[in-house]
Amino acid sequence: MSRPAHRCPGPISRRNVLQAGALGVGGLGLSDLVRLRADAAGRNEPLKDTAVIFVWLPGGPPHMETYDMKPDAPADYRGDFRPIKTNVPGIEVCELLPMHARCADKFTLVRSVHHTFADHGGGHKRFLTGRKPATPTGFVNDAPCVGSIASKLLEKRGNPSGLTNYIVTGNGRVNNVDTFSFGSAYLGVSTHPFAISADPNAEKFEVKNLSLTGGISRGRLDDRVSLLRGMDRLRRNAEGAMDGMDVFNQKALSMITSAKARQAFDLSKESDQLRDRYGRHEWGQRALMARRLVEAGVSWVTVVMENPYVSGIKSPSYGVYNWDSHAVNCHLFNDARIRFPIYDRVITALIEDLYDRGLDKKVLLVVTGEFGRTPRLSNQIGSRTKVTQPGRDHWPRAMSMLLSGGGMRTGQVVGSTNAKGEEPNHRPLTPNDLWATVYRHLGIDYQRISFPDYQGRPMPILPFGEPIRELVL
């Protein structure tokens, strides 16, 4: 098993690209975005009223400390924590996830997904595109991210709130689509997510360039509109014409001025009790905002949860920024003692909120990282603690994930790994089986739809994979 002697930096940005959330002067970039999306929209999009909340845990959460514990394995495999029973007989989770234990009837654990890309870049690309990447490292996609595919195919649904149908929220790292392999490759920038990196728990939280904040007057707004129209006229003259540009201007303007769009981001509309239930920090309030966005008609919301030390707890020397729990990065168990209770609260609050609001059929929640961690523990000197500490390395041969809602069967475990958590023992699955399940929920015909790649060759949106039968009703 790999035991690197150097600090693994985890997912990092590889290049600067135009991303959908950077709107430019007076909303001009947003007009471009709307125009490009309308140009790209296909002809056979489904019209099901469904949505996805995708919680991304970059770095790779440890499956044997969360959802696939092995209490009978040798000590250098099983780790410090023990499983606890849940409200579903036969399902157990880590003792640090007691809130999971109380609502296990509302989710399914999948324990047998695997692939072969152990690098963060290769793992991100393999997992998020449903394709084997051309290179095993680097974060720039050569195939579209699943969110971009969904965005393109669901465009015709429209949204009366004026919101775009694909939003990603997280810290400033989400502002570059390549940081987490969210790039759209040959689908183009029209299907990039609208990125929101501001802290929704901040007192003066606002979505930059989306709403009229900061005292913008009607006169200033008129100036923006005039500039937008003037620049579009210049572009029409230079590029030779887009007859419907005024329509795009109106859509761009409606997204900037829409009261419904502003309300979707206004967390003050929620009770203090519910906001407290999620947790008054970036993870918690981003998850709550995701629920508000899908309720307002957004089809796909990705929530990136990296750094748990956004909860008011000072980052200790034994902690790690994301889920990349090498021994050189962190003390796996001490980091988990802080990270897991925060994660436990946020994920279960989102699950229960979706059910309480009757969104459990409309919204499919998927919670996962790019791979699992090595079943056998490693011990190394921490780069910050300067003492020997336990950790786990990258392990794509086995991983666990959580799914909830989507009108699917819950209160179950799908698949299993062997006694040491090394590889699937029953029902081996791939990321493609997950995406086939997600596409089915969204009403996307993943077996028949294809898009031309850079060379004009038709590329199916999913080259292989089948819906996970245990989930589908």
Could you explain how this protein is built, in words?
Helix 1 crosses helix 7. This protein has 473 residues and is an alpha/beta fold. Strands 6-5-7-1-8-13-4-14 form an eight-stranded mixed beta sheet, sandwiched between helices. It has a two-stranded antiparallel ribbon with strand order 2-3. Strands 9-12 form a two-stranded antiparallel ribbon. The chain has twelve helices and 18 strands. It has a single domain, classed as Alkaline Phosphatase, subunit A, CATH 3.40.720. Strand 15 and strand 16 form a beta hairpin. Helices cover 29% and strands 15% of the residues.
Summary, kept brief:
Helices cover 29% and strands 15% of the residues. The chain is built from twelve helices and 18 strands. Strand 2 and strand 3 form a beta hairpin.
